[in-house]
């Protein structure tokens, strides 16, 4: 229904919209403190308590106060242990409905919160906020003992156990204690033999995903860690740190027995066995023991006859890399070792030592049959053939 008065046209529908707008305006309640608008006066009254600090509802168990009776009811579940909200997928229960809704994202795969910097998505807003610290560099949590800062509160709490010595997680198998739950769970796999992370290239299994990632670089050839001093690249960060000590000259591992220092911990531990006499690596063929595994491996080639190092100039093979390098000096014509008495030069330090006996008259090798002494081991072995009735020409100087 409508009427016309010249160019002016008015409809009842327009009047109805105006009435609705007026009605909405009457229902709008403005907060005098922050100008927030509420449709219901009861909601405004609750909101105003935020500004006034009024908390009329008190917990009878701990005395904590709240602005609304609903907030008090939710809080009291901390004391009662009540969890009225249950997940229909897995049955897990929660004290608050919002916690159930967040949990359900695990089953649905929904990640509604997206990082504007890199596009990474998260199921919880809180996780997004923590992630954004990666881009901003913000580390709001500071250790009161050493001043170290962290981007996450849980990381700070774990760090503080270093100072307090608190290790709340204990292994029931060996009694070892841990400050972090994730480290404890990984440790337990030593006893259970569980290796849940498997390489798709070779099938080898690992206890942690991090160890698998490092292993996969064997197949991909990836070396993400680069030395700023010489640009040499490494597959593991720990290998880069060890390498850097070549440039800095740092030797953080010092022997308390003789004062000798080392750049790598494994070299330091091997050295200590000189003082302790410990030889943990034993040959299964002859029972001879060694302080280092690599020395045992070299020794075992005596039994196997393996000579993996070959000279590219003449094809001669050697059981040890050091012997190959010494041999290659013959082809290069290099003689880096010289006699301080006569200036004669030699390819190896051993040759110099043997030569110097000509000046000193030293003869350290004795024949047990006749007592005759010799400057060189080769000469002694040749001599001993006389007593044994053997042909001395069967020995070569390289034996």
Describe the structure.
The chain has 399 residues and is of the alpha+beta class. It contains 14 helices and 28 strands. The protein has a two-stranded antiparallel ribbon. The protein has a two-stranded antiparallel ribbon with strand order 3-4. The chain has a two-stranded antiparallel ribbon with strand order 5-6. Residues 1-13 have low confidence and may be disordered.
User: Span from first to last CA?
Assistant: 122 Å
Helix/strand/pairing class, anyone? Answer: alpha+beta
CATH topology of the domain at 44-108: Double Stranded RNA Binding Domain
Reading off the top of the CATH hierarchy, the class of the domain at 44-108 is best stated as Alpha Beta
Average pLDDT over all residues: 87
In which order are the strands of the major sheet placed?
Answer: 1-2
Number of strands: 28
Shape: elongated
CATH evolutionary superfamily of the domain at 44-108: Classic Zinc Finger
- Helicity level, as a percent range? 40-55%
Rounded to an integer in angstroms, the radius of gyration calculated over CA atoms is 40 Å
How many helices? The count is 14
Question: What is the second-level CATH architecture of the domain at 44-108?
Answer: 2-Layer Sandwich
Low-pLDDT runs: 1-13
Largest sheet: 2 strands, antiparallel
């Amino acid at each position: 229904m409508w009427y016309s008065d010249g160019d002016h046209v008015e409809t009842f529908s327009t009047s109805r919209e105006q009435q609705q707008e007026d009605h909405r305006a009457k229902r709008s309640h403005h907060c005098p403190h922050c100008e927030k608008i509420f449709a219901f006066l009861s909601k405004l009254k609750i909101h105003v308590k935020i500004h006034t600090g009024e908390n009329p509802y008190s917990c009878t168990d701990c005395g904590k106060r709240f602005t609304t009776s609903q907030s008090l009811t939710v809080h009291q579940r901390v004391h009662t242990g009540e969890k009225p909200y249950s997940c229909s997928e897995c049955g897990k229960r929660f004290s608050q409905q919002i916690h159930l809704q967040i949990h359900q994202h695990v089953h649905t795969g929904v990640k509604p919160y997206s990082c504007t910097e890199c596009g990474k998505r998260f199921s919880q807003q809180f996780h997004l906020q923590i992630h954004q610290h990666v881009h901003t560099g913000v580390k709001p949590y500071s250790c009161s003992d050493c001043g170290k800062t962290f981007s996450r509160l849980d990381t700070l709490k774990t760090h503080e156990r270093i100072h307090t010595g608190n290790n709340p997680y204990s292994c029931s198998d060996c009694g070892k204690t841990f400050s972090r739950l994730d480290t404890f769970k990984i440790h337990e796999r030593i006893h259970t033999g569980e290796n849940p992370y498997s390489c798709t290239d070779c099938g080898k299994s690992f206890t942690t995903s991090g160890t698998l990632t490092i292993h996969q670089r064997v197949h991909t050839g990836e070396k993400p860690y680069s030395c700023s001093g010489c640009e040499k690249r490494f597959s593991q960060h720990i290998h880069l740190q060890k390498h850097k000590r070549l440039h800095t000259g740092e030797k953080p591992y010092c022997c308390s027995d003789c004062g000798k220092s080392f750049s790598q911990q494994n070299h330091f531990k091997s050295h200590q066995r000189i003082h302790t006499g410990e030889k943990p690596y034993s040959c299964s063929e002859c029972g001879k023991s060694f302080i280092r595994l690599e020395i045992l491996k070299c020794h075992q080639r005596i039994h196997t006859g393996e000579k993996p190092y070959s000279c590219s100039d003449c094809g001669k093979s050697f059981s040890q890399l050091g012997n190959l390098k010494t041999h290659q000096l013959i082809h290069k014509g290099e003689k880096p070792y010289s006699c301080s008495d006569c200036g004669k030069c030699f390819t190896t330090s051993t040759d110099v030592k043997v030569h110097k006996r000509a000046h000193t008259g030293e003869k350290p090798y004795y024949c047990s049959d006749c007592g005759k002494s010799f400057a060189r081991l080769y000469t002694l072995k040749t001599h001993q053939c006389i007593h044994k009735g053997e042909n001395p020409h069967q020995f070569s100087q390289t034996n």
